[in-house]
């Protein structure tokens, strides 16, 4: 009997076979769709779980000045649940792939559509069940995984920032090419940055976010330090050149001042006992030694300025050496000449020195008198001990052939003691 439109109707066995093939094709498509959904759901989970486990229970720390992000501790059940879920998912995916292989065009079930529909339908069901389990896992541990992802993202951002800092520092160094200026301390810092960056990249690849962030922070600090050393290097070099000219002039003046020490020391020896100026006895020798130090540093600085490239920090250090040695020469000259002037002033007018000490005693007495009795009582004994030394000082200063050195030392000792008493009482 003909079909509608005159076309012959398919035989019953053909109708049954076409239906089976359609069912098998539908089951294959459903299984493929379920596999795709599961693959999408699983895609980032291994990294996220590993990041959460790596983060551990320790609170996050800020890196490189960045604001610390709160880290949610990973519960102990996370690793166990993930292990069970991933093992089950692998098994289900394996069964699906086996069903797909068995029912391929050249597979053992190729001629049995019903079997293909059953196998692939069961695989699709199992895949959807696992997909639901994955979604529940994500919901249960979502905050932990998100926190770990943020930590990992922050570590990646820190690595990027460190690379940018390293690039900027290298550009600053390269910009000095042809200027005749250099800084020998920059290369080790850039090497340190490179090594730390390599460590950070490796840690990030191994999902060790905390280690990556720490290494990147070290790299950025080293790169920033290199850039800081290079910043304003030209201005610093100009300052060194001006400073070198200044200390050359100062060195000439120091030589003249040092020569004037000889008559000062001669006067001290002639007019006062050694006990009055023994602490400055070696001032000429010490000043000569400091002059030699200044000369050596100045010669090294002159050579550095003459032969490029100029290592600016090294030149700055040499200039500082010259200035420090010159300052010590000044100190020695000032100490000796000051001692002679002070002894001469005391010998010429001992009453002036005694008047200074007496005023210090009176001022301290008035200060204590203005304190509450309880506070004043704690300092009165010390004050009285110091005040009792004043009559002996007056006798020593007004006697025959006074030891002006001893008089001066005693006067200064009393004044220092009174000043210390007042400072302590004010702070009490």
Give an overview in words.
The protein has 428 residues and is an all-alpha fold. It has four domains: 22-54 and 74-155, no CATH class; 159-230, no CATH class; 233-348, no CATH class; 350-427. 79% of the residues lie in helices and 1% in strands. The chain has helices at 12-42, 45-55, 77-102, 113-140, 142-174, 186-205, 209-230, 233-259, 261-271, 283-306, 312-348, 350-369, 373-387, 389-398, 404-427; strands spanning 181-182, 310-311. Strands 1-2 form a two-stranded parallel sheet. Helix 12 (350-369) packs antiparallel against helix 14. The longest helix has 37 residues, at 312-348. The radius of gyration is 45 Å and the shape is elongated. The protein starts with 11 loop residues before the first helix and ends with a helix. Mean pLDDT is 87; it is low at 57-70.
Topology:
Layout: H1 12-42, H2 45-55, H3 77-102, H4 113-140, H5 142-174, E1 181-182, H6 186-205, H7 209-230, H8 233-259, H9 261-271, H10 283-306, E2 310-311, H11 312-348, H12 350-369, H13 373-387, H14 389-398, H15 404-427
Parallel strand pairs: 1-2
Helix pairs in contact: 1-4, 2-5, 3-4, 5-6, 5-7, 6-7, 8-10, 8-11, 9-11, 10-11, 11-12, 12-13, 12-14, 12-15, 13-15, 14-15
Beta-strand content bin: under 5%
Whole-number count of domains = 4
Overall mean pLDDT stands at 87
Secondary structure tally: strands: 2
What is the straight-line distance between the termini?
Answer: 124 Å
User: What string gives the helices and strands in order?
Assistant: HHHHHEHHHHHEHHHHH
Enumerate the strands of the largest sheet in spatial order, edge to edge or round the barrel. Answer: 1-2
> Low-confidence stretches at least 5 residues in length (pLDDT < 50)?
57-70
Radius of gyration: 45 Å
């Amino acid at each position: 009997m003909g079909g509608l439109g005159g076309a012959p109707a398919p035989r019953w066995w053909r109708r049954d076979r076409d239906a089976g093939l359609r069912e098998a094709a539908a089951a294959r498509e459903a299984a493929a769709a379920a596999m795709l959904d599961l693959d999408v759901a699983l895609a980032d989970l291994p990294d996220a779980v590993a990041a959460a486990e790596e983060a551990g229970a320790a609170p996050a720390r800020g890196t490189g000045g960045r604001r610390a992000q709160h880290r949610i501790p990973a519960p102990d059940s996370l690793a166990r649940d993930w292990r069970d879920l991933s093992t089950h998912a692998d098994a289900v995916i394996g069964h699906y792939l086996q069903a797909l292989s068995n029912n391929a065009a050249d597979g053992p079930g190729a001629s049995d559509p019903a079997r293909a529909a059953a196998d692939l339908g069961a695989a699709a069901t199992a895949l959807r069940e696992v997909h639901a389990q994955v979604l529940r896992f994500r919901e249960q541990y979502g905050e932990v995984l998100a926190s770990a992802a943020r930590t990992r993202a922050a570590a990646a951002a820190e690595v990027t920032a460190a690379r940018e800092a390293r690039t900027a520092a290298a550009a600053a160094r390269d910009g000095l090419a042809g200027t005749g200026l250099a800084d020998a301390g920059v290369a080790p810092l850039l090497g340190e940055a490179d090594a730390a960056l390599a460590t950070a990249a490796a840690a990030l690849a191994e999902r060790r976010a905390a280690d990556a962030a720490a290494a990147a922070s070290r790299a950025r600090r080293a790169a920033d330090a290199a850039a800081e050393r290079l910043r304003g290097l030209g201005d610093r070099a100009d300052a060194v050149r001006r400073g070198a000219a200044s200390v050359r002039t100062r060195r000439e003046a120091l030589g003249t001042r040092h020569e004037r020490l000889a008559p000062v020391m001669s006067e001290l020896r002639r007019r006062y006992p050694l006990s009055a100026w023994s602490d400055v006895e070696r001032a000429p020798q010490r000043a000569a030694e400091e002059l030699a130090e200044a000369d050596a540093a100045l010669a090294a600085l002159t050579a550095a300025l003459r032969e490029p490239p100029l290592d600016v920090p090294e030149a700055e250090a040499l200039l500082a050496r010259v200035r420090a040695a010159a300052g010590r020469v000044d100190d020695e000259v000032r100490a000796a000449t000051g001692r002679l002037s002070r002894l001469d002033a005391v010998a010429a007018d001992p009453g002036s020195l005694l008047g200074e000490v007496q005023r210090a005693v009176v001022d301290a007495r008035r200060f204590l008198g203005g304190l509450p009795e309880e506070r004043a009582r704690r300092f009165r004994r010390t004050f009285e001990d110091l005040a009792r030394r004043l009559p002996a000082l007056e006798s020593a200063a007004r006697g025959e052939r006074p030891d002006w050195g001893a008089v001066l030392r005693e006067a200064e000792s009393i004044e220092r003691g009174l000043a210390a008493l007042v400072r302590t009482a004010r702070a009490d």
